[in-house]
Amino acid sequence: MKEEKINAHICLLKPEIEKLIKNKDWKAIKEAISILHPSDIADLFEELDIKYSVVLLRLLPSQLQSEVFSELDSELQLQILNNLTAEDVKSIITELDPDDRTELFEDLPPRLTRKLLNILPSEERKEALQLLGYPENSVGRLMTPDYVVLKKNWTVDKAIEHIRRYGKDAETINMVYVVDEGWHLIDEIPIRRLILADKNQTVESLMDYHFVSIDVNADQEEAIKLFEKYNLVALPVTDSQGHLLGIVTVDDIIDAIREEQTEDFTRFSAIKTKAVDLDLFTRLREIPLRKIFRARITWLFFLLIMDLIVGGIIQGFQETIAKYVVLVSFLPVLVDTAGNAGSQAATLVIRALALGTVKLKDWAFLLGRELLVAGALGMAMGAGISIMGIVRGKSIAIAQVVVLAMIVNVIVGSLIGVLLPFIFTRFKKDPATASTPLITTLADIFGTAIYLGIAYLMLG
After folding, report:
1. What is the structure's pLDDT at 157?
2. What is the pLDDT of residue 274?
3. Around 263, how many Cα atoms within 13 Å sit in the side-chain half-sphere?
4. What is the edge-to-edge ordering of all strands in the sheet holding 244-249?
5. Residue 284 contacts by C-beta under 8 Å, 6 or more apart in sequence?
6. How many CA atoms lie within 13 Å of 400's alpha carbon, on the beta-carbon side?
7. What separation in angstroms does the CA of 130 have from each of 52, 123, 126, 140, 256?
């Protein structure tokens, strides 16, 4: 409800802002947007024509410019950059937080990224290159080097004075970090603990040496799990020797979660996300048709080739089918049920792998459990189709073939659903790649071969 009110407010504000820009009433524009949150201003930018967005951005104070710019989607960011002067661009990207700047550079074409890096001041350029040097989707790409550190021998009074002086440039001061002389992370302290302590106490007296950190090269999914497990607002990032390099804050993790969920969703749908950089699901109306085509054709063509195998299997049993034509009427329900059972099993395993409650080493245990569950499901489904086997097949022999094929197909489909995510994980691929279309297509192939093979053996 709140979001609808905000959107309605932005829609009402849009024509007024456009009118003020046409009239060059800059003072009134500043007054109109001064009460808005940066996210709401970003929503307004999404509604305005690009020419108005550029003008409005130039009217914002430099700090607010960077805050609003970081809230925009990558496509609009690129359009705005292409319509700004080099000096304006330099001002914006210099003011951006390091993690937001890294995210921007990741989304831009390499040529433009190199150009923007060259106009950054030397210190910011060095910082940006360092962050971009970490592997894609690693924690290093998410972290910011803007944080507050303390020394354990300081008094609380000195620590608070230090926070006052340097905290304004930090991403967050909810947590401050204690390092030794070699810059190794030795503890983290909530700001509340410092504020409530006596000013003559030492920082060391407040330390418990209990903290959670993550390696800079770890995958961002590992960071997401730590934030969820420990309810963190910030996570310190270290190298392999324990040196503090930066922190990841909860707002960056929320963005990472959204990105991971979108990526998994596309893979579940057998869509190649890299071609559209995940914008396919977030900005479907604006995505060029060629990109949508390119994202979908690869898997569809691959699945088409696999489906042709089914036709070859049916052709191999054409004599049996010609003699017992009624067998064909049961084929769709048998292979579809196997595919559905496999998709159910895969969904459970993929989610468990994502949450970390299941590890690669657990594959044999889960396979054994699934064999028992699938056997029970197969017998239940077999009992359900047995009556139709007798009625439609007009033969006990046909009914026996259908029931046995149903049991075996459900078991095989379920085992495929369990094994595929583990196989993809073993080869360091996202288990979500074991998507529903892939599982159902494999179930079609195996299910058809099993059904017609059983029919051939039992009916002759």
Report:
1. 95
2. 52
3. 17
4. 214-215, 234-238, 244-249
5. none
6. 9
7. 35, 11, 6, 9, 20
Q: Domain span at residue 445? A: 317-459
Cα gap 389→457, rounded to integer Å: 17
Task: Return phi, psi of residue 15, to 5°.
Answer: -65, -30
SS3 label, residue 150: strand
Q: Does this model's pTM top 0.70? A: no
Count CB-CB contacts under 10 A for residue 180: 14
Instruction: Using alpha carbons, list the distances in angstroms from residue 152 to 110, 179, 184, 209, 402.
Output: 43, 7, 12, 11, 74
Q: How far apart are CA 78 and CA 84, in angstroms?
A: 10
Residue-wise DSSP of 380-428: HHHHHHHHHHHHHH-SHHHHHHHHHHHHHHHHHHHHHHHHHHHHHHHTT
* The pLDDT of residue 262: 64
Q: Looking at the structure, do residues 381 and 248 belong to the same domain, yes or no?
A: no
> Integer distance in angstroms from the first to the last C-alpha of the chain?
66
Contact 76, 45 (CB under 8 A): yes
| CA–CA distance, 388 with 402 (Å, rounded to integer) | 9
Compute the C-alpha angle 108/112/114, nearest 5°.
110
**Distance set, CA 132 to CA 34, 46, 124, 342, 371 (Å):** 34, 28, 12, 40, 46
Q: Are residues 336 and 431 in the same domain?
A: yes
- Contact (Cβ atoms closer than 8 angstroms) between residue 171 and residue 70: no
Q: Are residues 24 and 113 in the same domain?
A: yes
Q: In whole angstroms, what is the distance from residue 278 CA to residue 387 CA?
A: 47
Query: Diameter of the chain by CA atoms?
Result: 95
* Residue 395, pLDDT score: 84
Answer whether 93's CB lies under 8 Å from 116's CB: yes
Asked if 114 and 172 sit in the same domain, the reply is no
Which pLDDT value is given to residue 373?
A: 96
298 lies in some domain: no
Listed as ranges, residues in the chain with pLDDT below 70 are 1-8, 260-287, 433-435, 460
Residue 276 domain-assigned? no
Based on the fold, state whether residues 8 and 126 are members of the same structural domain: yes
Q: Are 442 and 416 in contact (CB under 8 A)?
A: yes
Q: What three-state secondary structure class fits 120?
A: coil
In one-letter notation, the amino acid at residue 407 is: I
**Amino acid at site 183:** W
